[in-house]
Each structure stands twice: as structure tokens, then as C-alpha cells.
């Protein structure tokens, strides 16, 4: 009985938090988001595509479905869950960068707890259970799944009893900018070039092709976007062109525009980044304003574009 009560308190609390790993799922399950424009991608999406700017400049309702640390297969799982509770968008931006997008599995342990509050949603849980090691005991024994996740345990209780803010600055329609100190990471100082493996990406390519085709058939405008990455990092990779050719092939096949910011002026200035792959607040603003201008040029209407041309 105590386990049932505790499970209810923690789960209900987590469904109200603004913590990044729960916030977007919470918004999705509330329903009624009905976004005109959706952003799909991983961490580069959720901290790089500013929904404040997208809404105000393009005069539409956007939502950022960016899924931290999870490649295309999980991005599509999140999108499909969104579609069960909200209407289809008019346009989808897919962040098609050479790092991460074309993966088909996420680290089994990474933030598996984000699915715990929605453990009774068989459609969602069955699609992630194998990789995330969500067992029969997790699904059927009250409180069992929260063991080992003390911080989430405590946050759920705090939220249930009235705490409202957990994540710095809160999430806004799936977006939250990073404004941490610049960290160049471990790759930049190395002299060796890195080769991106594309031999194991056939499943992900088929997945992206199918998703693009089905979206186009529904009348949804799909746009591939290569968001900025710090250029000195890009120079460390040997065969980016091979990866880019995959996106270009699908783009040509379905008439999908590609907006490429991989060589923009933003990429040459570390003051726009918290690390070589993620924009900071300043970078997200500059990138999103430029993106809005270019989206307007391909037919997604803007009411103020001329003011924000960079």
C-alpha cells in the first residue's frame, strides 16, 4: 500500500516538472500542442532552435521536440507520441548534422528514467523497453522502477507538494539555451583525423527516407537543417561529405530543401558555443534569426523577417 501511494506521488510530481528530460514528454501528454512547426533532433536541437524567436518572427506556433542524446529512431518515437495527442504540423525541421542523427540506438542507460512516469503507456514503453531495459517488474511493481534514481525520487515528491522550478530557466516549448562556460572538449586538441562510420547506417537511412516520404504524403513540408557546429571541430572529420550525400540524396528524391549553416560565420566564433557541438544563448539567437529569414524565403511566412536579416 505504501509503495502504491509513493509511486503515485512521485509519478504525479514528475509529470509536473520543468526538468528537461521530463518537460517535453509532459507537454506532449497534456495534448493540444497542435504546432504549426516542429523541430526534430537531439541535443543540438533543444538548445539551438529558439522557440521564442520562431514563434515571434514567423508568426506561428512552434514546438521543439529535441531529444537529448537520442538519435533518429528515438526522435521518431517522440514524434509519433506527439501525433497521438496533437494534430499534425504544417512543417517539420529535421536537424541533419553529421554527428548523431543517423544513429538507430541510444545508450540503454542514458536517461531511461524519463519514461518512468508514463510506464502505463504500452505504445510508448513497448517501443523503448528492449533498449532501455524496462522489465516486467518495472512495469508492474509499484515504485520498483524508481529504485536507484534518488534525485528523481526526491524531485517527484518535491513537485507533488508544490515545488515548481527545477531546471535552470525552465523549458519553453521544448527549448532551453545553454549559457555555460566555453569548453573545447577532448577532440579539438588532437592531431588525428576522425572517420565517420557509415557502413552501419543503412537502417537509419531507410528510417529517415520512410519518415520523409510519409510526412510528404501527409502534406507536411519537411526541411533538412544543418545547424552550426564549431568549424575547427568539423575539420577534424575526414568523410563528412559521405554523410552529407545521404541527406542530399533523400532531399533530391522528395524535393526537400536543405538549409546549410555548417559554413556560416557563426561556426568560426567560439563565443557562440558552449562546446564545439552546442550553441549557447547568443549562438541560438543568431542562428534562429537567420533560420527564420531563410524559412521565410522558402515559403514559411514571416511577419517581421526584414527586421532580422543577418
Describe the structure.
The structure is a single chain. The chain has a five-stranded parallel beta sheet with strand order 2-1-3-4-5, with helices on both faces. It has helices spanning about 1-15, 20-30, 45, 50-60, 70-85, 120-130, 135-140, 150-160, 200-215, 230-235, 240-255, 280-295, and strands at about 35-40, 60-65, 90-95, 220-225, 260, 275, 280. It has one domain: Rossmann fold (3-Layer(aba) Sandwich). About 40% of the residues lie in helices and about 10% in strands. Mean pLDDT is about 90; it is low at about 305-310. Helix 1 crosses helix 8, helix 2 runs parallel beside helix 5 and helix 4 packs parallel to helix 12. The termini are far apart. The protein is of the alpha/beta class.
User: Mind summarizing the main beta sheet?
Assistant: 5 strands, parallel
Widest sheet: strand order? 2-1-3-4-5
The low-confidence runs, each spanning 5 or more residues with pLDDT under 50, are: 304-310
Strand content of the residues, in percent?
5-15%
Measure the end-to-end span: 60 Å
Amino acid at each position: 500500500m505504501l509503495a502504491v501511494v509513493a509511486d503515485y506521488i512521485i509519478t504525479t510530481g514528475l509529470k509536473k516538472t520543468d526538468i528537461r528530460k521530463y518537460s517535453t514528454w509532459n507537454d506532449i501528454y497534456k495534448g493540444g500542442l497542435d504546432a504549426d512547426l516542429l523541430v526534430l533532433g537531439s541535443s543540438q536541437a533543444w538548445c539551438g532552435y529558439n522557440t521564442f524567436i520562431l514563434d515571434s518572427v514567423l508568426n506561428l506556433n512552434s514546438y521543439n521536440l529535441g531529444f537529448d542524446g537520442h538519435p533518429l529512431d528515438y526522435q521518431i518515437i517522440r514524434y509519433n507520441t506527439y501525433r497521438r495527442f496533437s494534430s499534425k504540423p504544417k512543417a517539420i525541421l529535421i536537424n541533419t548534422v553529421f554527428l548523431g542523427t543517423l544513429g538507430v540506438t541510444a545508450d540503454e542507460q542514458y536517461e531511461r528514467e524519463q519514461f518512468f512516469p508514463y510506464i502505463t503507456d504500452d505504445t510508448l514503453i513497448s517501443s523503448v523497453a528492449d533498449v532501455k531495459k524496462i522489465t516486467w517488474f518495472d512495469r508492474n511493481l509499484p515504485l520498483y522502477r524508481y529504485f536507484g534514481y534518488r534525485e528523481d525520487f526526491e524531485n517527484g515528491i518535491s513537485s507533488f507538494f508544490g515545488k515548481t522550478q527545477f531546471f535552470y530557466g525552465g523549458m519553453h516549448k521544448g527549448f532551453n539555451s545553454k549559457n555555460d562556460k566555453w569548453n573545447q572538449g577532448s577532440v579539438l586538441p588532437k592531431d588525428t583525423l576522425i572517420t565517420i562510420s557509415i557502413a552501419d547506417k543503412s537502417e537509419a537511412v531507410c528510417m529517415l527516407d520512410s519518415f520523409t516520404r510519409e510526412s510528404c504524403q501527409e502534406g507536411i513540408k519537411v526541411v533538412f537543417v544543418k545547424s552550426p557546429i564549431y568549424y575547427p571541430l568539423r575539420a577534424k572529420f575526414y568523410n563528412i561529405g559521405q554523410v552529407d550525400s545521404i541527406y542530399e540524396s533523400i532531399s533530391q528524391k522528395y524535393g526537400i530543401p536543405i538549409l546549410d549553416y555548417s559554413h556560416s560565420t557563426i561556426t568560426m566564433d567560439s563565443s557562440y558555443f558552449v562546446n564545439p557541438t552546442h550553441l549557447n544563448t547568443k549562438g541560438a539567437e543568431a542562428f534562429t534569426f537567420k533560420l527564420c529569414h531563410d524559412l521565410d524565403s522558402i515559403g514559411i511566412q514571416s511577419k517581421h523577417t526584414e527586421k532580422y536579416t543577418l
